[in-house]
Amino acid sequence: MSRQCTACRSDDRDTIDAGLLRVGVTVQEVADAHGLSHDSVWRHARNHLPERLALAAEAEEVASADALLDEITTLIHRVKVALDRTEARAVEGAGSEADVQGWTRELRGALTLLAAVSERLPPAQVMVLSSPEWVQVRGVMTAALRPFPEAAKAAAQALKSLG
Ligand SMILES: [Zn+2]
């Protein structure tokens, strides 16, 4: 959490975070709804939301483990979409490998969070790791990273740590 961050400082932080975790709602829509800039909400989503989810998992603040897993899966989905777009731009010559690696780090962070939370859950809930959605995420990520061996290696190591 940052004092510099307008989203963190907002009284509507819970609503902002809930909006960011909803599939089909864009960062721009969340920003507009709260009178914030796209960049500040995007920075908040990247830098502060994962940390907050991790703290919630630690404190078991969330109503149920299922709800938390849903949120983390959604976060991974969002990061995956961003990685896809960045990679597509890189292929067109409009993006850089550094950007792709940045998103790969984000994805690794989200996966580490998922792994940390999964450790605290009963085995049935860990089945999310073999769900069709997860398999799709993994497949898309592997394909997206093919042109970037270093990033692919880092992602593979992160996946391996999930078991
Ligand atoms: Zn923030």
Structure description:
Helix 3 (27-33) packs across helix 4, helix 6 packs antiparallel against helix 7 and helix 6 runs parallel beside helix 9. The relative contact order is 0.10. The chain has two domains: 1-47; 64-160, no CATH class. It is mostly helical and 163 residues long. The protein is built from ten helices and no strands. Helix content is 73%, strand content 0%. The site of zinc ion (ZN) has 6 residues, from helix 1.
In a nutshell, what does this entry contain?
The protein is mainly α. Helices cover 73% and strands 0% of the residues.
> Hey, roughly how much beta strand do the residues contain?
under 5%
The rounded Rg comes to: 16 Å
Count of runs of 4 or more consecutive helical residues: 10
List the ligand species: zinc ion
Q: SSE string, helix = H, strand = E?
A: HHHHHHHHHH
Q: Compute the separation of the termini in Å.
A: 30 Å
Per DSSP E runs of 2 or more residues, the count of β-strands stands at 0
